[in-house]
C-alpha cells in the first residue's frame, strides 16, 4: 500500500478513536418501579429522579386522582386534567371512568375567561362535566366529534359578555361533526357583538347525531338580534338525526334555526326532532327551512314571538307538528310550508294535530304550502284566521276548534280540493263579519264544507265562495244546532 495512503488511513482511525473517547456516554434510562407515590401536580411535573414510580396519587384539592405512567407515549401535551408530563418527558395518564371534570383542566368560576381551559378539556377527552357554579366565557370553544358536555340543569351559568358564540364547529368544514351531546348548560348573553350567530353555532360540516337538551339561555341584555342555536347545512353537506329537546330559551332573533338553503332541491337535512322546549320572547321561536325531510315538532310551548312561533318553510317533507301550545302575541304563531307536492306516500302532506293555544293568542295560522295536509284536533283561539294558500291543496281538516276575532275564521285562498268536516269554526267576536268560511279566487275550487258547527259574527254569512271560488256545503249547523241552508 502506498505509504501516503496508509498514513492518511491511520490518521483517520486515530481521530475516530479520540472522538469516541471524548463523546459522553448516553445516560442510563430511568428505572420504573412498581409502586404508588403521593405528590402534588407541581411535584410530579418537576420529578427528576432516575427511579420513578409507575403510579402516582395526585393530592391537589379537587384534582385528586391516580395517574399511571404511559411509557409508550412520547408526544402528548400536559393538559393538567388527564395527562401530566414530568420535566424529563415522562407522561402519566389519569385513571377514571365516566365524565372528566373540567375543573381538572383549570376551568374555575373565578376565571376571567374559561374559554381556553374549556378548549383544552374539549380537545383532551370525549365526555366532560362542568361543576355547579357561575362562569365567564370570552372566547369561543371549537367542538369536535364524539363529544359530550354535561352540567346539572339550572346549576351552571355561563355568561358571555364578549362573544355571542359559546360552542362552534372546527374551522375546517371538511371535518364531520358526529355524536355530540350538550346537556344541562345555561347561558346568559350580555355581549355587545354584532352579527347573527348562535350560542351554539354550527356552519360548515356534515353533522350527524347531534343532541341539545335540558339547556337554558337568554340574550335579553345582548346588543344584536341573534339566535340561540344555529345549524346551517352548507352546499354538499348533510345534517341527520338532530334532536333539540327540553330547553328553555329566550333569543332576540330565533331560539332555534336549522336551515338548508345551499343544496337546491336536495333533501340534505333529515330526521330532525324539536320537542318539549319552551321558546319565548323571540322574533321566531323555531324555524326549519329549506329542503328538509322527516321533521317532528312536538309538545313545545311557544310564547310571545313577534313574527312566527313555529315556521316550517321552503320544500320541507314528512313534517309532523303535534301537541304544541302557543301563548301570547305573534304575527303568525304557526307558519307551515312544505314542497306543495305532498310529503309522503301515506298522508301526502303536513300532519298538524293536537295543537292548541293558551287563552286567546294574538296572531293566526298560515299554511302557505302545506300540500295535502292532515289538520285535526287542533284548538285555536286567536285574533287572526286560518289561512290556506298557494299549494295547500287536497287536505283533510277535521275535528278542530277555530275561534277567531277576524272577519273570516278560515279562508282557502286559491287552494283547491280541501275538505272541512266535524269542526267548530267561529268568528262570533268580530263585529264586521265577511263570512266565517271563505273560498276565495278562481283556483279555490272543489272545497268541501260538511257537518261543521259554524258560528258567525254580526252580519255577513256563515260561508261563501267569491271571485271564482267554489264550495260544496252540506249538513252544517249553527251555534244552536239549527241546520244552515
TrEMBL record:
Pfam families (alphabetical): Beta_helix
InterPro entries linked: Beta_helix (IPR039448), PbH1 (IPR006626), Pectin_lyas_fold (IPR012334), Pectin_lyase_fold/virulence (IPR011050)
Residue intervals of the Right handed beta helix domain: 205-380
Alphabetical list of Gene3D superfamilies matching this protein: Single-stranded right-handed beta-helix, Pectin lyase-like (2.160.20.10)
Keyword Signal (UniProt): yes
Signal peptide: 1-20
SMART domains noted in UniProt: PbH1
Alphabetically ordered keywords of this record: Signal
Name of the protein this chain belongs to: Right handed beta helix region
